[in-house]
Every structure is written in structure tokens, then in C-alpha cells.
């Protein structure tokens, strides 16, 4: 009894082509996922309305890293007077995070420059 011609060769030409194509498709899928992930903005500011005014959250690729329901560095529980103020301050905080890769602080002068009323 003799074996079929392709049974003696474990990797026939067709099997090699299939394996190569599968490997190529896998690599392309991984590269596509990687580049889509890189295009996603790293930081996002979400403005939130609180009973005491406006605040903001900062997310890093969807993970909450800062929850700021009040005006930073100020005593009391008062939030920002407007949604726009909270957004501007949140965006400034993101800029500082991107520059230093550390948790930022804002001075009263910086808050005033962003339109926040500081007593």
C-alpha cells in the first residue's frame, strides 16, 4: 500500500501558503488595532454639573484620573459658575499633564486668566 503523494510531505505547498496568509492577516490585524488605539485621544475632559455648580473629570484613555467637582485650591464646596469655566480649566489641566506628565496645580492667577472669579 502506498501513501498519496502529499501525505509524505507534512507541509505541502498549499499548507505553506495558507499558513503564510494566516500569519500575514494576524499581523495586519494587530497593527490595525495598535494604530487605532494610538489615534484615540489620550486625555478627555468631561464637564459635570453638580448641585454646587460645575466641575470636570479628566479621563486617560477612558479611565478617570481626576474628579474635580469644585474650583481647585479654593476653600468650600462651590463649583465653577459656568460650564465654560469648568471646561477651560479642565483643558488647562490636561495641557499641564501633557507637558509634565505629573498631577498639575493651578495658581489663583492662572484661574483668573481662565475667567474664574477668585475672591
What is the straight-line distance between the termini? 98 Å
- Helix percent reads 40-55%
Strand order of the largest sheet: 1-2-3
Order of helices and strands: HEEEHH
List how many beta strands DSSP finds. Answer: 3
In terms of DSSP E residues, the strand content is 15-25%
Largest sheet: 3 strands, antiparallel
Number of helices: 3
Uncertain runs: none
| Basic shape | rod-shaped
| Average pLDDT score | 87
What value does the Rg take, in angstroms?
Answer: 27 Å
Q: Please state the structural category.
A: alpha+beta
Number of domains as seen in the coordinates: 2
Write out key terms for the chains shown.
119 residues, alpha+beta, 2 domains, three-stranded antiparallel beta sheet, 3 helices, 3 strands, 18% strand, rod-shaped, DUF4907
Describe the structure.
The protein is of the alpha+beta class. The chain folds into two domains: 8-40; 43-113, no CATH class. Helix content is 43%, strand content 18%. It contains three helices and three strands; from the N terminus they run H-E-E-E-H-H. A hairpin with a 2-residue loop joins strand 1 (43-50) and strand 2 (53-60). The longest helix has 27 residues, at 13-39.
Write the layout of secondary structure elements.
Elements: H1 13-39, E1 43-50, E2 53-60, E3 63-68, H2 83-100, H3 108-113
Antiparallel strand pairs: 1-2, 2-3
Amino acid at each position: 500500500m502506498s501513501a498519496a503523494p502529499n501525505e509524505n510531505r507534512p507541509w505541502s505547498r498549499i499548507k505553506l501558503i495558507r499558513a503564510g496568509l494566516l500569519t500575514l492577516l494576524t499581523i495586519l490585524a494587530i497593527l490595525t488595532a495598535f494604530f487605532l488605539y494610538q489615534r484615540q485621544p489620550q486625555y478627555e475632559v468631561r464637564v459635570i454639573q453638580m448641585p454646587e455648580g460645575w466641575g470636570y473629570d479628566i479621563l486617560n484613555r477612558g479611565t478617570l484620573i481626576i474628579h474635580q467637582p469644585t474650583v481647585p485650591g479654593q476653600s468650600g464646596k462651590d463649583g465653577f459658575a459656568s460650564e465654560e469655566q469648568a471646561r477651560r480649566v479642565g483643558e488647562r489641566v490636561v495641557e499641564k499633564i501633557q507637558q509634565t506628565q505629573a498631577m498639575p496645580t493651578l495658581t489663583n492667577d492662572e484661574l483668573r486668566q481662565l475667567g474664574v472669579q477668585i475672591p
